[in-house]
Amino acid sequence: MVKGANVGLAALSEDVGSVMVSLGWSSATGEGDADVSVLLLDGDGKVRSDVDFCFYNNPVAGNGSVQLLGKTPTADGSEDRISFDLDAVPEEIDKVVVAASRYGGSRFGELDDLRLTLADSAGDGLVRFAVEEADEVSAVIFGELYRRSGEWKFRAVGQGYASGLAGLATDYGVDIDDDAAEEDAREQGEQGHEQEQGQEYAEEAPLPEPAGQPTAPARVPAQATGARPDDVPAAPAQDGPAAAPKPARRPRTAKKKVTLPRTTRKSLADNESWRSARLFPVSALKSDRERETRATSVVLSVMAQVPEFGRRLTAGFGAPAGRMETFTEVTLPHGESPRRPDGVVRVERAGKLWTALVETKTNGNALKPDQVQAYMDIAARRGYEAVITLSNDVALEGSPLVDVRIDGRRKHKVALWHLSWAEVVHQAQMLIRHEGVGNAAHAWLLQELLHYLQHENSGCHGFQNMGAAWVPVRRGIDDETLCQGDARALEVIENWERLVRQVCLRLGGELGQKVLPVQRARRGSDPGARRAELADHLCEQGRLNAEIRIEGTPGVLAITADLRTGKLRTSIEVPSAEPGYPLSRVKRLIRRLAEAPADLHIETLVDGPGAGPRGTLERLRPEPADIVPKDGAQITGFRLSLFKGMGSGRGSAETGFIRSVDEAVDRFHAQVVAQVEAPAPRRSRSEEPTG
Question: Which pTM does this prediction carry?
Answer without folding.
Answer: 0.78
